[in-house]
Amino acid sequence: xxxxxxxxxxxxxxxxxxxxxxxxYIAEVSGLPSARLSEIVMLETGxxxxxxxxxxxxxxxIILSKEITRVGTRVTRTGKRLTMAIDETILGKTVDGIxxxxxxxxxxxxxxxxxxADVTPMGISMRHKITEQMITGVxxxxxxxxxxxxxxxxxIGDRKTGKTQVIxxxxxxxxxxxxxxxxAAVGKKQSEIKRVEQFLKETKIQDxxxxxxxxVQDSPGEIFCCPYTAMTIAEFFRDHGRDVLLVxxxxxxxxxxxxxxxxxxxxxxxxxxxxGDIFHIHSKLLERAGNFRIGKRRASITCIPVxxxxxxxxxxxxxxxxxxxTDGHVYFDSELFSKGRRPAINPFISVxxxxxxxxSKLVREAGRILLDLLSSFERTQGFVRFGAxxxxxxxxxxxxxxxxxxxxxxxxQKTVPMPLQLTLLALLVSGIWNGRNLDKxxxxxxxxxxxxxxxxxxxxxxESVNGLIDKVRNSQEKxxxxxxx
Amino acid sequence: xxxxxxxxxxxxxxxxxxxxxxxxxxxxxETVYKTGEEGLETVLRTKVGEKPARxxxxxxxxxxxxxxxxxxxxxxxxxxxxxxxxxxVSLELAQEPTGELLSGIRQKISEYANVPVAIDYKVTPSxxxxxxxxxxxxxxxxxxxxxxxxIWAVIKRNLETRHDN
Lengths: 485, 165
Fold this sequence. Notes:
The complex is a heterodimer.
Chain A: H1 6-13, E1 16-23, E2 26-31, E3 40-43, E4 48-54, E5 58-63, E6 74-77, E7 83-86, E8 94-95, E9 113-116, E10 133-134, H2 139-144, E11 147-148, E12 154-158, H3 163-176, E13 180-188, H4 190-202, E14 209-215, H5 220-239, E15 244-249, H6 251-264, H7 278-286, E16 290-294, E17 297-309, H8 317-325, E18 328-332, H9 334-338, E19 351-352, H10 361-385, H11 392-408, H12 418-429, H13 438-447, H14 449-457, H15 465-474, H16 476-483
Parallel strand pairs in A: 8-14, 12-17, 12-18, 13-14, 13-15, 15-17
Antiparallel strand pairs in A: 1-2, 1-6, 2-5, 3-4, 3-6, 4-5, 7-9, 10-11, 16-17, 18-19
Chain B: H1 3-10, H2 15-30, H3 40-46, H4 50-63, H5 69-84, E1 88-93, H6 99-113, E2 118-123, E3 130-135, E4 138-143, H7 144-164
Parallel strand pairs in B: 1-2
Antiparallel strand pairs in B: 1-3, 3-4
Helix pairs in contact in B: 1-4, 2-5
């Protein structure tokens, strides 16, 4: 955000106010007779704040910085709403909750476009049907719970169930395919933000990514603004015809900080003490994502909001709100995680409402087969628990289930391209491969152009899994030779 | 509220005077329900200025409830609210103003605003001359400093013209 000096604003707007009271990061400011709601005001100390409520005699201002504000400090208007100066050079940088480049970044940013952080979402005439799949590189999601470009999919689960890991894998795969990835760390620990930054650096996708970081020690105002800032950056790249993957990690923390602010502001508390407009606050933000017509082109913002649950309870107020405003949810099961399943996604509780329409006939069938295999596996496992004697078919189901789960268990910093996912599935279903040593398969695919060519061409012209199995069997010699299955 | 206090309040010209009186009233409010060293009489004698102490005592005596703590508390609260409501006009001047000038300015603004106002001023020599006024959230800058670029342009033009001649 670029704002002129206090004196300049005072001279231009000819209005002054004084901080009369302070509660945490909320200031009561007298004066400023023509101030407007959501306007950014500037304090004589150089701090900025946003007007969040107007009363007859005073304005309530949320201070967007960590410095202490004193009573009696002069305040002036700026006439601006929360805006950000964005250009292409923001890629590879870490910015704070209000879009200011954080220390330690590379700097040298030039101002080209001023974008408002709080805008009305685009209307229906500007939107386009979601037709293209967003490949995450995580086989379980791509085959069973596909996401479309422009879809809003909630990632929900207890803490420490591997949500961030899957998100980072998705970012890695999307960045490789040329999309811009924006990660908004909302009220996260500094160490967690550092870990994400490190991942982006190590996987060399930093130049395709922007990290919007508001750590838990930042002011609630910055934390509150963080997802809006991230969405604004996403809109900048969308307007330039780029596909964007936006991760909002996480929205339940965002809701908690908004609740804190609302309670300080004496807003009437509703269910779980959240203010009445919590749904509006989140839905207005998520409505800004989607698949859009930009001129004659198409550009999308795929949004992955994250919500944390407690002890697997997905019926919480904010969680169900988020479920209702997204196009499905991926549920990370702590029980599966403790059993050692990776990713710990429960496909039976997860939903994707628009992803399937983006899949080809082949991939849709592959997903159905996997779902059948896994549900039979779960059912049969139930019998095993009762100590029942297993027949040959049950044993086969269990073996196949184990193989499928082994296939889903991907290395942390690796993603599986879609043709390879299908080829491996065909190898698995036909009994050629046992699902183990996926890492070696991936390495062979990445390092051997010959095998990559065969695998990439495998799904071409094939419309059913049986057809794919036949094709794989025909190239079995070549594949098994290189894959060493 | 009786006339002596009214007169005293309307005679408070600057914000500092109001703040000073406010803090004295605060001290007096703390004496309610207390006796002896911390009681109203002692504090009025020892910790409050002579004139404010006199007007407050007179006011309370006139009400006939000098010893009623409930009344005292209400009285001081009302007095404090009244002082807080006095509008303040902020002035920024290039040099220390005379008392006469301040009174003149205050009188003019009070007449304009139709309520007695208090003046809060500060001296900033870099303004050169003129005044900056802030009142009711509005801000006006009538200083030479703000007009200096225009003034300097005129001076420069005149100098250049003379030089050419």
